[in-house]
Every structure is written in structure tokens, then in C-alpha cells.
Amino acid sequence: MAASSTSSIQKSFKYDVYLSFRGEDTRKNFVDHLYHALQQQGIHVFKDDVKLARGIAIGDQLVESIEDSKIFIIIFTKNYASSSWCLNELVKIMECNKMNEHTVYPVYYGVEPTEVRKQSGAVGDAFNKLKNKEDAGKWREALKEAADLAGWELNNTFDGHEAKFIKKIVEEISIELRAGSDSTNLTGVENLVGMEARIQDLEFHLELGVDDVRMIGIWGMGGAGKTTLARALFDRISIQFEGKSFVEDVGQVSKPSLSGLKLLQMHVLSDVLDDKGITIADIKEGKYMMRNLLHGKKLLIVLDGVDDIEQLEALAGTPEWFGAGSRIIITTRDKQVLLAHRVSYIHGVSLLSDAEALYLFSKYAFGRETPIQGYTDISLEVLRYADGLPIAIKVLGSFLNGKGEVEWMDALERLKQIPLKETLEKLEISYISLEEDYKEIFLDVACFMNGWDKDYAIGILESCGFHARNGLRVLEQTSLITMSNQSLSMHDQIQEMGKNIVRRSHPVEPNKHSRLWIEEEIGEILANDLGTEATYSIIVDSPVKLSSVIVTHSFRSMKNLRILHMASELDDDYDYDYEVKIDQAHQNFPNALRVLSWVGYPHYYLPETFQATNLVRLNLSYSRIVQLWEGEERKVLYNLRFLDLSFSRLTSIDLELTPNLERLDLEGCDDLVQLYTPIGCLQKLRYLNLNGCSRINTILFIKRLVSIEVLCLTRLFLEKFPDIIPENYNNRLIEFQFRYNDIEELPSSIENLQKLVYLDLHSCRKLRSLPKSICGLRHLRSLKLYGCIIEELPEDIGRLESLEKLNLSFTRIKHLPDSICMLKHLKNLNLSSCWNLEKLPEDLGQLECLQDLILSECTQVRDIPDSICMLKHLKSLNLSNCILLAKLPEGLGCLDLEVLNVKGTGIKHLPRSIYLLKDLKIYGPTLGLRSRGSASTSQTLEPSSISKQKLDDR
């Protein structure tokens, strides 16, 4: 809800909450009630009239108390700004807010945020009463910073009812505090319930000791525990395989975009090959790459949530795609999908037994393995309505947790009125208890956002005015959603329940639904101009095939539409499968829109009738748009923060019309010629992507981007390094992508980018050297010089004390300076295809954090220094095709090496100590070793496991 920062090291605070307020305004009413409500929830609160001890300097103790508080609640009232005491307190609070672990929540009691932000109205009158004007500047800045945070307004919440207002504050503070605690974490509980026998049964049918390729299916109803079972099995047996990949929600991920299956193919390839840089052009190429790159590897792949045979054909076409011993596990609700793919075995998931159900329910309802005394009978009665379905048991347990006997009886009466077959309504009990804004968030997730990236979903929800982070935490804690691997997910039955809530009032009149997501219904509504003010959101994943003129004309009646998220169907050239007739008079977008995302937008401009004053996000990627507005029309989009026009036909853009923009993506705008960036605009821009915009007239404006954090200037073919140092030198740049440009040198001013973390100069093929000043980038963690023609590194390269990844592949490096051994945090050193490199530094062993060393194709390297045996964290050593390399250091066996690639080298004998490495996989000649399952000791390119070889086997 409010700005906060986190750290991997959790700080311990003396107080949970610090209350900042003007005593004469609220001490005996609102603050007193809020204080006691927080205390009743077990929240430790600091309030100065209670905690200050006599005889101690007030200022000193307040500073200490502020620093020792996790959360600050600032109650802004009409007279708050008349107190220098309060304002100095506020300054200290905002200083703490910039540090780790603190969070600030402003509360507006009888004033508006804009009055605080601008010191106007009653707040301004109070501020002007101050006699001490020397500190006015820092006070004004602190007030503005606090008012810029999202907070609570009494006048706009529960119609000003203070009791409800306080209840909501306490609830959200409790959620914030619990989020940092492990006390309510039930992750893995379901793995303890009836899972062992099910895993053993599956292991029996997997026959892991047999070297054929097997595909098995796990089939059952939604919520029966298919994913849980697959994950538990995956975690147990994955160590037995050379590569592994767990692909979640295949059905969901493969459908939201035109490239969903392609992304899943890249996911699998990246996982099993341990290469995050893999890219594929289309599904056909993905099948070819999987078939040719995976057939020699023993792999474990789980495809979770498959719902169409096409998905299996793209991700696990035939057993011949995979190496001997591979196992492919598929979970699905549709048995026909498994039969059509001819899997080896189908495992039907059984629901929980009565004993298992009671155990799981007790964990969620009571936090123990059995019900508390007196609740056993009623627990068993409640469980009758869960019918052994794990997800229903978890939801009911979470809902009843902490509730008294009366509430239990009320819940049981509700359940008795619900038919057993109606699982959807069983799950609705938890929904009913939600606050209204959390219900809205839940319905958005159920109808649209299941499977979405978490941060993207939060951005959309926040654009619509919701406190999304707290809302999603509430939904997660009530088992209505899960958030894992940076994505939102929701059980099928719960999702159906949410959709049913939206549709049931008007089951045969979708034009009266608050949310629309079914393409056929949307098509009929738009084609027949049936839109109504009832519709708030339209999000459709499949491309709409309607006439663009009909579509834009039909939005006119949807005056309350806040989200429009759709796509037009494109062919391979990103053109459209229908003729577009531009008719500005008949284009309509509701002025209430906050999010407009239309991939493939078919018109050249936004409609002239569209005011766009509420627009926060605009995505018209892969569209025909050439300018935002036609001709000389100028409409300023004051609220627009995110603009994506990538791969469109944009020719020019006036960025004075978007003064508050934070993210701008113009990648692939080949026709873009003019960027109009007058002085004073783009002051808030944090992300700018101009990749491929090689025709733009100038990029001189970049030095005026005082807030820029990520800058992408790939394929501009620049011959001179751009001036990217802001004019005020308050540089915030963290990531700079500058691939495929024609510069020959970097300026010495590069050292001014003191916050730079990622610098990518990949394929700057004319770059001959690096300035010494680059060694001053103390925060640089990744430096990519792939394909540059540099011949040497600066002698002081060791000063890059934070560097973790250094890619020098395909450079002309002849030697590495000795100081490179001072890079104490370096984890990945890539020297592949450095054909001029003759030797490595003798003190290589000083790179104490090095995990991956890649020397493939270093054809001049003859020796590996003995000091490599000091690299205790080295996991992978790739020496493939180092043709002059004839031996390895004798002490290599003292490492925890997991992968050794000696393919194409001159090595004939491995050091004797290497046989002590239990988990080592060797790629290349077996050198006389007999691999398990192989009767031959001849040369092979397959990895050889020597984990159980005796020394005499050599």
C-alpha cells in the first residue's frame, strides 16, 4: 500500500507501529480508538503520551523510538502542519522510510491529500502560522513525499464511518506485519497428508532403473492434489536426472498470447540446458530444437495443467525427443488428452480419506494435527461438505481459523443449505467474508489474471485504484489464490466460483456483466452495439476477429469501462487479416478508461473523441499507430505512467504530452524518426527502450533523464557513445543495454555512472578497448563484452569489487591482467572462443566465489594453473575443444565439481583424485571409465557418471 524497502536480513524492531499525530486534534478520539484497536490485535504501538518517560530529553527519545519502529501511521489533520514538533517528527520518519524494513501509511483525517502535498487549504493555513521559517524547505519536502504515498482517506472510505475506517486500517496493518513472519506459513502441509503412499505408487510405475523413455499422466478433478503430488515426486527424484524442468499451468500460459507455447518451449530448453539466453522464432523451430538438443540427455520434465493435445505435441512430441532414462510427467483434468498422446501409464488421483482430511483441516483450522477439545464432531460435520477435496478443505480451514463457536455454527448452517455437488458455492464462504475492495480484486483475478505475472497484475490493479499488494495477500492467506514463481495462480474450482459470481445475476445477458472475458460474447456485444454501463473490464486473450470500425464504435455505451485489454489478429508480417477503414467520427473509447492495452490496434491515431484524462497504462504494441493524436491535436495525458508502442508504425511522438511517464517502450519502431522531448519533460521516466529505433533524429535528450534506471539502446548503430550523464549528475542508471552499436571506444566519463549494475556491450564489433575509468564502477555486477574486438582489459579490472558475471567470449583477449584475481565476488567467467588467449593467471584460485568457468574453443590454452584447485565453489568447468590442453591439475578432486566438459581436448588421463567426486558428470571421452548401464569403455560424447566407481575401476 505504501512505499517500503526490504532486505534479505530482517531487522528486529522494538515497536510494530509508531503513531504520529497532532495531539490537540485527535488524541482523545480517533487516535485513542485506533491505538486501542491495534493493541487488541497484539500489535505493539508507540504513542508519545503513553511511552515517554519523565526526565529524559523528549527529542532524543523520539528519534530513538522512530528508528526502532517498523511501520509509521501519520494522521494528517487540519492543524498537523502548525506544529514544528510534528513536522520535525515527520522529517525523521521520511528519512527512515528510505532505509530498509520501514513502511509509511498516511491517514487523512478531515483533510485531502492534495492539501498536504501542496500545503493548501486548511493545511496551508496551519503551515503559515509557523514562526520558525528556517526549516520550512525540509518540512515542505517531507509533506510532499508523505502525500505522494498511497494512504487512507476518511472522507472517501465507508462514508466517513470512523469505526469501519479504523477496522480496515488495523486489518491491513496486521496483514503487513504477518507478511514478514513465518508463523502463518503452511507451505508444504499438504505434502504431509497421504502423500507418501501416492508417491510410492507413482515411483513404482515410473521404473526409474529402466533406460527407456516413459511418459505418465496424473489425472483427476480440479483441486484433487495433482500438482502437489507432481511437485512432491519431482522434488524427490529430480537428483537422479541430468536436467529437469517443472512447467506450471501449461494450459493457462499457452493461451494468453500468440506466443504462449513458444515461451513454454523456451522455458523447458532454458531449464534443462541451463542457458537463459535461448531464443526461438516460432513453435516449429522450438520442436526442432527440443528434438535435437534433448535427445542425448536423461531428463525429468513435469508438464502441469495440460488441457490440449497441441500443448503435448509442442512440449513432448515423442519419446525419441529425449535421452534414455527420461521421464515425462503430465498432470491434467482431461483424461482424453493423455489417451490421445498414448502415455505409458495414467494415475488417477484419489481424494483424501476421512483421516487425511481431518488432519489437513486441523492444520489450517487449529494449527495442529487434531481438532482442539470439543471441536471434533463439528469438524467432521464441516468436512462432509468438503467431500475429500483438498482445496475445499484448505479454504474451509482457513476461513474458520480463529473463529468462535457461534461463527462455526453459522458457517455450518450455511454449508447445510448448499447442495453437496455444488463445490463452487462451498468455496464462496471465504469470498463472502472479504471487504468489498478485496472482492473486486478477487473477481479480477478469477476472470482474467489467473496465471499472470504477479507484478504485471499488481500494476493493472493499482492503475484502477486498488491497494493490490495487501489485497492479494488477503486472498492468499484465505487460500483463494497462491503466489509462487512470481505468478498468480488460482485453483480451477475457485476460479469457476468467481466467474459464477459475475455471471449469475444475468446468466443469459452477458452485456450486463461487470467483466467480460469470453471472445464469442464480446464479439456479439460489440458487433450488435449492446454495451452497457455495467461493464467495468474487458480482457480477452484470443485475438478479436471483428471489424475494427465496429469494435471502436461499439464502446460508446460502456461509459464505466476502466480496463480494455485485447488484441487484433496479426499475420506473420504483423499486418491485419481484414481491411481497416479509418473513420475518426465513429471511433469511441470511454473516458473512464485507466488501462488500454490493444496489441495490434488497427488505427493510425487514438480517437479524437477520447479525452484519456484517466489513462494510466497504454499499450498499442504491434499496431498501425503513427502518432498518438491526428494532425495538430494536443491532449496532455497527465495520469499516463506506462506507455508501450513497441513494434508499431510510429513515426513521431511528442513526449511533452506525457509529463508523468515512468516507463516508455519503443522497441522495434523502425519508422520512428522524430522524438520531441522539450526541456522539462520525462522527469519521472525510469525505463526507456529504444532498441532498433535506428532512424530517430537525436538521443541528446537522454542526459536530461534524471530518474532513468534502465536504458536500452541496442541496434541503433551509433558510432559515438551517447552522453547519458544527467545534467545535474544525480545519476540513477542501474542497467544499460548497448548491444550492436558501432562505437570504437567508451568515454572516460563512464565512471560517473556510479549506480550501474548491468552493462551490456554485446556485439559492439568495433569496440577495441575499455577506459581505465570503467574500473571505478563499484556496483557493477554484470559486464558483457561478447563479440567486441578488445585485446586487453584494464590492469585495474580488479577494482570492480561487485562484479559477479564477466563475459569475454569471442573477443581478441590475449591475456588476463593479474588483478582479475581480485574479483572476490565473481561467479561466472566466460572466455569461450577467445582464440588468442594463451594462458590463465597463476593466481586464478583467488576467485573464491567462482562457480562457472567456460574456456570452450580456447584453442591456444595449453595449461590450467594448479591454483584452480583452490576454487571451493566451482561447479562447472567447460574445456571443450581446447585442443592443446593435455592434462588437468592433480588436485581437482578436492573440489565439489558437478560438471566437467573435456570433449575435443588432448586429455588422455584424468587425475586420480577426480574419482572421489560423487556427483560429477563428465562430458567427452570416458577415458577408460565404465559407465553404469554401458558395456563399452570406448570414446563417447555422452556424460559418464562415476559416482559409484571404485578407484581400482580405472
Please describe what this structure looks like.
This is Disease resistance protein (TIR-NBS-LRR class). Residues 930-954 are annotated as: Disordered. It holds the Pfam family LRR_14. Keywords: Leucine-rich repeat, NAD, Plant defense, Repeat. Helix content is 28%, strand content 13%. The protein has 954 residues and is α/β, with parallel strands linked by helices. Among the domains are: 15-179, Toll/interleukin-1 receptor homology (TIR) domain (Rossmann fold); 189-348, 3-Layer(aba) Sandwich (Rossmann fold); 354-503, no CATH class. The N and C termini lie far apart (63 Å). Residues 1-10, 50-58, 182-191, 570-582 and 928-954 have low confidence and may be disordered.
Average pLDDT for all residues = 83
Question: How would a crystallographer describe the biggest sheet?
Answer: 19 strands, mixed
- The first-to-last residue Cα distance is 63 Å
Assigned CATH class of the domain at 15-179: Alpha Beta
Shape: globular
Indicate the proportion of strand residues: 5-15%
| Unreliably modeled segments | 1-10, 50-58, 182-191, 570-582, 928-954
CATH superfamily of the domain at 15-179: Toll/interleukin-1 receptor homology (TIR) domain
- State Rg: 31 Å
SS-based class: alpha/beta
